[in-house]
Design a protein that fits this description.
Blueprint: H1 8-26, E1 42-43, E2 76-81, E3 84-93, E4 96-100, H2 124-129, E5 137-140, H3 142-149, E6 155-164, H4 174-189, E7 209-212, H5 226-234, E8 239-241, H6 243-251, E9 256-264, H7 266-269, H8 273-278, H9 296-305, E10 319-323, H10 335-352, E11 355-359, H11 366-375, E12 378-382, E13 400-404, H12 413-420, E14 424-429, E15 432-434, H13 457-468, H14 471-474
Parallel strand pairs: 4-5, 6-7, 6-9, 7-8, 10-11, 10-12, 12-13, 13-14
Antiparallel strand pairs: 1-2, 2-3, 3-4, 3-9, 14-15
Helix pairs in contact: 4-5, 5-9, 10-13
């Protein structure tokens, strides 16, 4: 019967149209970027965020069979730099990733997308053993897909997946996870929303699942249990799949299709120019577009989850946090120099009213560490995992990281990460300090790991005061 009341079908159409309207009005109008795209970067400018049609609402009412694709639509590459690739409709069959396309000339070199996922060691044979084969990834045409997958249509793995194809080697470590792999995952993914404002809000849907193809559930957590804290705080609904799940899906003998997946592969990322300069795989996705506030989404989620409230921060009160390793037993300051540094910092506190915290991370709970980092203006310490907390600092004009090395020694880990967040880094060799662009070559001289690292506490304190009063900026 036709009447004036709308049918369910008409109502559905109106709802879908409204959803589209809301989506397009709230999306970025003209994504602009402060970053120059490197020749290695591919960005498919259309379709940068999942359309609402792909969202969970499209599954209501749930129709049996809707979770399967009709035919084998082509895979598209949404964004790519070596080691970090976002695909739409990537097929997985018998444990192999299939790119289905009749335009294979537009597909990046397979070596720059995936590897065998073997642990990373030096030497030409080791490098060769990580080069991908047809077992890891194949690029096939639509006709071939029909023949290969046969009558079995592909089952959708919906939403956004993050697939980490690395072994546990660099994962079970707070720095390498939170400040490198997870950091890089979000930097690559958030390239799809280059307009993230300072408060971190974004229309990008959070990843629904993390897939590890080469490690089991017992091999991604770190000894301090920070990896799971950070990941679950950032994405409370994320679920995990491990190598058992990967093999299980393979053994089922049916094709799967990942609606949208970000594939991260450390060996593949090592083929990039940015990696060669910094030895940081997370530096590679910085060749993609991105908001200067790209990390705010994650930082805010994690520090809020950890109990930090902006009200906890007294206005114009600057916080200096020295992360001491003096009881750690490895890579420590000369004890006298440590004591002198603490004295000088306390003098600053007494003279200028700065808050000074001298802490050993192993004595703080996770919540205490994260809350303190969230309030810290200047973080300092000997090169080491404790400095990973710098990723939770609020980047402001004064935010600074000071890292003490054994003279002659240098590594990019915290230096690069600090700059990636728009903060200032100073390295120290005893009574000498250095900052970009005048940083030394990477070196691990004898003494680097030792307990006789010198530091000039007066120099550190002077630099703290300069940074907090922005002295070098008032000069010009
Ligand atoms: C599935 O992969 C295994 C290797 O793990 C291989 O031996 C087998 O031939 C493959 N099966 C099909 C149907 O491709
Ligand atoms: C975040 O900032 C944007 C743009 O400045 C604003 O439109 C939005 O309402 C803010 N969101 C929150 C949760 O404050």
């Amino acid at each position: 019967m036709t009447g004036l009341t709308p049918t369910t079908r008409e109502l559905c159409l109106v709802v879908i149209l409204l959803a589209f309207l809301v989506f397009f009005l709230s999306g970025p109008n003209s994504p602009t970027s402060s970053v120059n795209l490197s020749p290695e970067a591919i960005v498919n400018s259309k379709d940068l965020s999942l359309s609402s049609a792909d969202d969970a609402s499209a599954q209501i009412p749930y129709q049996y069979g809707n979770n399967r694709l009709i035919g084998f639509p082509e895979t598209t590459i949404v964004a790519h730099v070596p080691g970090w690739t976002i695909f739409d409709k990537l097929y997985i069959y018998n444990g192999t990733a299939y790119i289905v396309t009749d335009h294979s000339e537009s597909i990046p070199d397979r070596n720059k997308m995936i590897s065998t996922g073997k642990p990373i060691h030096n030497g030409p044979e080791e490098v060769a053993s990580r080069l991908p084969t047809d077992r890891e990834m194949r690029i096939i045409g639509t006709k071939e897909a029909e023949t290969l997958f046969g009558a079995n249509s592909a089952s959708r793995i919906d939403g956004v997946s993050w697939w980490v194809n690395d072994p546990s080697q660099f994962i079970m470590h707070y720095y390498h996870w939170s400040a490198e792999i997870f950091f890089g995952l979000w930097r690559a993914y958030s390239s799809l929303d280059p307009t993230i404002p300072a408060n971190g809000s974004t229309h990008l849907p959070p990843p629904r699942r993390m897939m590890f193809s080469h490690l089991d559930a017992a091999h991604w957590r770190d000894y301090a249990s920070m990896n799971e804290w950070v990941t679950r705080a950032a994405f409370p609904s994320i679920s995990f799949e491990f190598s058992q799940d990967w093999h299980e899906r393979a053994a089922m003998g049916r094709p799967w299709v990942l609606e949208r997946v970000l594939l991260a592969d450390r060996s593949a990322a090592m083929k990039s120019y940015n990696y060669l300069r910094t030895q940081r795989t997370a530096s590679v996705p910085f060749a993609l577009p991105g908001s200067p506030h790209w990390w705010a989404t994650i930082r805010h989620s994690v520090v809020l989850f950890s109990g930090f409230r902006p009200e906890m921060q007294e206005k114009d009160k600057y916080v200096i946090t020295y992360i001491s390793r003096q009881e750690w037993g490895r890579r420590m300051l000369i004890q006298r120099d440590h004591e002198r540094l603490v004295e000088e910092l306390y003098k600053l506190r007494d003279t200028y009213g700065y808050e000074v915290n001298v802490v050993s991370t192993e004595k703080l709970s996770r919540v205490e560490q994260l809350q303190l980092a969230g309030r810290t203006t200047i973080m300092m310490g000997v090169h080491g995992n404790g400095l990973t907390s710098l990723v939770w600092m609020q980047p402001t004009r004064r935010s600074t990281v000071m890292e003490f090395f054994f003279p002659g020694g240098f590594a990019h880990d915290y230096e690069w990460t600090t700059r990636a967040l728009g903060m200032v880094h100073f390295g120290f060799w005893g009574d000498r300090s250095f900052t970009r662009p005048d940083v030394p070559q990477v070196a691990y001289p004898p003494g680097f790991q030792g307990n006789e690292i010198p530091i000039d506490g007066m120099l550190v304190a002077r630099l703290c005061h300069e940074r907090l009063t922005l002295a070098e900026e008032t000069d010009d």
